[in-house]
Amino acid sequence: MNSKSVPVIAERLTKTFRVAHRSAGFMGGVRAIFRPTWEYKPVVRGVSLSVQPGELVALLGPNGAGKSTTIKMLTGIVAPTTGSVRLCGLDPHRNREENARNIGAVFGQRSQLWWDLPARDSLVMLRDIFEVPAGEYRERLRQFDDMLELSRFWDTRVRHLSLGQRVRCDLAAALLHDPAVLFLDEPTIGMDVLVKEQVREFLRHQVAEDGKAVLLTTHDMKEVEHLAERIILINDGEEMFEGGVAALRSRFGATWKVHVTLSDAVGHPRLAHARIVAREGARVTFGPRPEASAPLGHALKEIINAYPVSDVSTEEDSLEDIMRTYLGGAAAARQSASGGSRMAAR
Amino acid sequence: MTPVGAVATIGRLCRITRVTWLSELLEPGRMVSTAIQVGSQVFLTACLWTALYAHTEVSAGLQEHQAVGYAVLAVLASRLRPLSRDMAPDSFYRHMREGTILYWFLRPLPPHRYHLVRALGDQAHGLLWVLAGYGLCTTAGVVPLPDGRWTLPAFLVSMFLGQVIVYQLSLILDLLCFWTVANSNALHVSHFVQSLLSGAFAPLWFFPGWFTTANSFLPFQSTLHIPLSIYVGRIPVNRVPREVAVQAVWCLLLWLITRTLWKRAESRVAVQGG
Ligand SMILES: Nc1ncnc2c1ncn2[C@@H]1O[C@H](COP(=O)(O)OP(=O)(O)OP(=O)(O)O)[C@@H](O)[C@H]1O
Ligand SMILES: [Mg+2]
């Protein structure tokens, strides 16, 4: 496939920030002015990714993992230290103006709307800046209004809008020029459940109906489960995983439980995929075998075939549980590693 | 670019300047306070300079009507600078601090052009205030009408160049944000320095010789002092070409500086936080 037909391609992106090192206290501040010492801080270390048309990819990772920095490189705001980005066939940093017509972006905590103007006037400003023809503009605005209920508040000045209202206007603002690629950095931050659902529906529409390529970062795992076909997990600037939700489960040892009530007392045949983890009279709980974590579906079938079951319920780790386990493990590993290096330095 | 394309582009840029108008019109309170502020400043300035001339005919080469005219016009003209939204959410400073500047880089309008268009809107808005004030002041006889056929055109040319310099100086302060993130201190200092050295506080003719000599090596007097002196006739028309040439050189120099700064800023921008 050539690079033009894949809207987003990034290869081995790295970003190292140069930060002035400043020792504590007043003298530290004075010294930093006259003789700054620079520290190089690698923030993104080799991230490769691609997003296809009509695909929503979630970029996940803990705070400070480098997600926002990656998005800034992909959108062309910041130049990568090494590696390459192609957006609709262009180098976004070199061709900022041309690139701007192909992409839209929402950085959740930041608004691109004009603070003193009613939201709708901000949209008109963007229409002029992006040179959107009047007819298309009206049509799109109507569509956004249908899905996001903007007309209820778009005559309010932006500084009086609630967070959820403002971000919805920002979404409309980012899509006004019908870009092929949409970057969303924590777009649903601070939205209530109903509005979140509304925005999800809107995004699903943008991806499925309009074929937009969307890259999303969020800390809301429900959203990922609902929206993302593919997940890219980064930690400490390094890519840890890339694949579907199911693959993520098996990769990070997601676990499940099957609770059954037996209708007859029977012996306990050995199962290939499941083992008993608890039993209480006729109620038995199964979990995966430690040596091979099988998918829930296989185990369930096996259990039902082997036992006389009168009632069944299942329980599966949510994406949030998986992330928690994974991040907990990663943090512990980092702590022991840095502890070790400190010992070595002494 | 075709003529039609050029007209379309200009129309589009003009429409972008409406941010200024809309946000001012939506705030009638702000307009009233501006009117009160300008009105009282003009009145007090006129009183002060009239009083200073109670016992003299000519001081520092200026007659009473020249000094009053200069001082009052200086008050009016300070309305022309890019709106003082120093700490407002739409200031460059706040865009840098809060990182919303990143959206400027995601539009098909380069940041330097957007900045210019916004400033033009602000300055055009200020011009309306100035024209209204000027009309009132000349009718009331506080500001004399220009003398001689060439005075007004010479003044307009010089004033235009002065405004270009005002924009470039304020742009340099804004661009400092790319290196220091905050320019609020620089803004405070520069407002004072610029007002003092441009003649907005008092006509520069009253300052000691060493001061004027030093100041002549700086761009500030080109912003107000030169055009206003041309207007009141303190700089005779035959010396205008030389003064205007100096202004033009400043424009060119500052343009080179701001262009370089923009280039560097646009390539080094590292939007904070996220
Ligand atoms: N301009 C900068 N200069 C120096 N360091 C920076 C800069 N921008 C970001 N960083 C650092 O890079 C790291 C990654 O930041 P980034 O904003 O990309 O994280 P993130 O994954 O988006 O986190 P979050 O989930 O909290 O939004 C952080 O440690 C941050 O301190
Ligand atoms: Mg972030």
Helix-strand layout with pairing:
The complex is a heterodimer of chains A (346) and B (274).
Chain A: E1 8-21, H1 25-34, E2 37-51, E3 56-60, H2 67-75, E4 82-87, H3 96-100, E5 103-107, H4 119-130, H5 134-148, H6 163-175, E6 181-185, H7 193-208, E7 213-217, H8 221-227, E8 230-235, E9 238-243, H9 245-251, E10 256-262, E11 274-280, E12 283-288, H10 296-306, E13 309-316, H11 319-345
Parallel strand pairs in A: 3-7, 3-8, 5-6, 6-7
Antiparallel strand pairs in A: 1-2, 1-4, 8-9, 10-12, 10-13, 11-12
Helix pairs in contact in A: 4-6
Chain B: H1 3-16, H2 18-25, H3 28-52, E1 58-59, E2 62-63, H4 64-77, H5 92-98, H6 111-140, H7 151-180, H8 184-198, H9 209-215, H10 220-223, H11 225-232, H12 240-268
Antiparallel strand pairs in B: 1-2
The complex binds adenosine-5'-triphosphate and magnesium ion.
Provide structural commentary:
The complex is a heterodimer of chains A (346) and B (274). In chain A, helix 7 (193-208) links the parallel strand 6 (181-185) and strand 7. With 346 residues, chain A is an alpha/beta fold. Chain A has 11 helices and 13 strands. Chain A has helices at residues 25-34, 67-75, 96-100, 119-130, 134-148, 163-175, 193-208, 221-227, 245-251, 296-306, 319-345, and strands spanning 8-21, 37-51, 56-60, 82-87, 103-107, 181-185, 213-217, 230-235, 238-243, 256-262, 274-280, 283-288, 309-316. In chain A, the strands form 3 sheets. A 6-stranded mixed sheet of chain A has the order 5-6-7-3-8-9, with helices on both faces. The radius of gyration of chain A is 25 Å and the shape is globular. In chain B, strands 1-2 form a two-stranded antiparallel sheet. Chain B starts with a helix and ends in a 6-residue tail after the last helix. Chain B has one domain (3-267). The longest helix of chain B is centred in the middle third of the chain and has 30 residues, at 111-140. Chain B is an all-alpha fold and 274 residues long. Chains A and B meet through helix 2, helix 3, strand 5 and helix 4 of A and helix 1 and helix 2 of B. Magnesium ion binds at residues 67-68, 185 of chain A. Magnesium ion is lined by residues 67-68, 185 of chain A.
